Amino acid sequence: MSDFVIYEQEGSVVTLTLNSPDTRNALSNYDEYMQIVESCERINRDPEIAAVILTGAGSSFCAGGNVKDMQDQRGLFEGDAMAIADKYRYSIQQIPLALFNVDAPTIAAVNGAAIGAGCDLTLMCDIRIASEKAKFAESFVQLGLIPGDGGAWLLQRAVGPSKAYEMAFTGDVITVEEALGCGLISKIVKPDDLMAEAKNLAARIAKNPARTLRMSKRLMREAAHVRLDTLLEMSATYQAIAHKTDEHLERLGNISLGKDKVKK
Predict the structure, then answer these.
(1) Last residue within a domain, chosen from 189, 206, 223
(2) Which of 65, 97, 221, 242 is deepest in the core (most CB within 10 A)?
(3) DSSP characters for the chain?
(4) In terms of domains, do 103 and 201 share one?
C-alpha cells in the first residue's frame, strides 16, 4: 500500500500531507480513504497533540473523486446503485466522520485546487488558509452528481445558505479572493509562505494546553446545534475539569509571579 497520507509530527503539531501529486491528490480508493481515517484515529489516541495541519503535495490540494474511476465504473463506482450506496457509507463517508471529529484543532493549508470532495475536505477542518494559487469548487452538479461526502451539511455552515446554494447549484470555481470574501477561508498567503504560515498558526494554537483545546473544540462543535442551556451545562462540567488540571494551576502560578511567558 502506497503512502497516500504522509504523517509527520513535530512536538505537539501533526502535519498530514496528501501525497499523490500525479493524480492531483484525488481520492481514489478504499486504502487511501482509510489512511486518512486511520491518521485521524491516531491523532485522537494521543492526547498531547494540540494542532493538526492538512495539506496536499504538488500543485493541488485535492482534485476530489477520481473521474477516471467513475468513467470505468470501478472501485467505489462499481456495481448497482445499492452496492455503490453501501460503498459510500463504509468508505469515503468515513472521512468526514473522522476528520470533522478530530479532537485537536485542525488547519487546512490549501496549496492549490480544492475541487468537489477536495473542497469538502477543507470544510472538514476547523480553520482554512490558502495560497494565492488556490481555488475552490463544489462542482458535483457539473458531473451530474450530488455532494456525496457531507458537503451539503458542511458548506452552508462555512459560508451561509445563500452562497452555499450558489456554489452547489452552479458548480462554478471560485477564486481565492472570493473564498476569503465569503468566509470559506480566513487568510490568503503567498504560495512560498503557506506552510510557514500554517505552522505559525498551529504553534500559536499549540502553546495552549492540548486537553483544554480539545474540550474547547468539542464545545464549539456542540454549540452549533444545541440549546444554550444545554451548552451551558456542558460548559460547566468542562470548566470544572479544566480548573483541576495541572496546566491551569501552573498558568495561574505564572500569572501570580508576573511571568510574561508561560510554559507549554
Answers:
(1) 206
(2) 65
(3) ---SEEEEEETTEEEEEE--GGGTT-B-SHHHHHHHHHHHHHHHH-TT--EEEEEESTTEEE--B-HHHHHHT-GGG-S-HHHHHHHIIIIITHHHHHHTT-SS-EEEEE-SEEETHHHHHHHTSSEEEEETT-EEE--GGGGT---TTSHHHHHHHHH-HHHHHHHHHH--EEEHHHHHHTTS-SEEE-GGGHHHHHHHHHHHHHTS-HHHHHHHHHHHHHHTTS-HHHHHHHHHHHHHHHHTSHHHHHHHHHHHTT-SS---
(4) yes
